[in-house]
Amino acid sequence: MESLFLLLSISFLFVVGIGIALFWAVFSGQFDDTEENGQSILKDNDSHHK
User: Fold this and answer.
1) Half-sphere exposure (Cβ direction) of 41: Cα atoms closer than 13 Å
2) CA–CA separation, 10 and 22 (whole Å)
């Protein structure tokens, strides 16, 4: 029974940590312009490579 409480508390801390990381990523602008990053590889000029 004691191990169950330990595992529940550890999993709760993981869920809170993941929630904080997601909250930070969304509100710090990590997902503002996802199209530009996808298009940048198509616009890259690779003519200097042989």
Assistant:
1) 4
2) 18
